[in-house]
Design goal:
The chain is 33% helix and 15% strand. The protein is of the alpha+beta class. The protein folds into two domains: 107 residues, no CATH class; 92 residues. A two-stranded antiparallel ribbon has the order 1-4. Strands 2-3 form a two-stranded antiparallel sheet. The termini are far apart. Bound molecules: iron/sulfur cluster (SF4). Iron/sulfur cluster binds next to loops.
């Protein structure tokens, strides 16, 4: 049992993942403390880390999180050498609320008042229509639901179609708008093939395309 009563700034929370932004954090983006390409979208229904329960679970709303470093989970703003936050004075609301020794305060606010992509994009920007096209072709909740029964061959067929559609739309948008991979993570979230971990399926390249197959044991 922990006897901690205050933050020891051990960095454990920061290593478990960047914070999800709330509407309170809007000015952090507007004023440039956090850039769009430092965020990753967890689309509604996709699996996301819940710091309150310390588990991965389908998220009931769209979340914008600070990206991890180099494909890992550690928050982009965490300084390993100094064991501290490089934007401490401007850290997001979640980081101010989280007390690892008593997570109740965070649990009361989680999934409330969250920032979404549309809050950070000009309403006239044509990229919004592309985001909607992606949502229609690759709904996050449907993908997560299909993954829970990945042994079912019909599900594998549907998952394959969605992974292909996801890759095709990303490729199309990258060419049309000339966006970076980091910006793609903000606009479209994590590629679906990256979300196959733990399902028993893996994505294999074949004849210039992809297919899903059972992971070899
Ligand atoms: S923004 Fe700072 S305090 Fe918040 S998780 Fe990242 S490094 Fe930690």
């Amino acid at each position: 049992m922990t006897t901690t009563k205050h933050c020891r700034q051990c960095g454990t929370c920061c290593r478990k993942g960047g914070p999800a932004l709330s509407r309170e954090d809007l000015d952090l983006v507007r004023l440039g403390h956090i850039r769009h390409d430092q965020l990753i979208t967890i689309r509604c229904g996709e699996l996301g880390y819940n710091p309150g329960t310390d588990r991965l679970e389908p998220v009931p709303v769209e979340l914008l999180k600070v990206r991890g470093k180099g494909g890992g989970w550690t928050c982009l703003f965490f300084n390993e050498a100094q064991n501290d936050c490089t934007m401490y004075a401007h850290r997001p609301a979640t980081c101010r609320i989280l007390q690892c020794w008593q997570p109740e305060a965070l649990l009361a606010t989680i999934y409330q008042n969250t920032l979404r992509r549309a809050d950070l994009i000009n309403p006239n920007d044509p990229i919004l229509a592309e985001i909607e096209r992606h949502e229609q072709a690759c709904p996050g909740k449907l993908f997560t639901d299909l993954l829970t029964e990945a042994d079912n061959p019909e599900n594998v067929t549907r998952l394959t179609e969605m992974v292909r559609a996801d890759l095709a739309i990303r490729d199309d948008i990258a060419h049309k708008f000339g966006i970076s991979l980091e910006m793609e993570f903000f606009l479209l979230g994590r590629p679906l093939f990256k979300q196959l971990a733990g399902s028993g399926l893996e994505c294999v390249e074949e004849n210039g395309g992809i297919r899903l197959e059972r992971r070899k044991k």
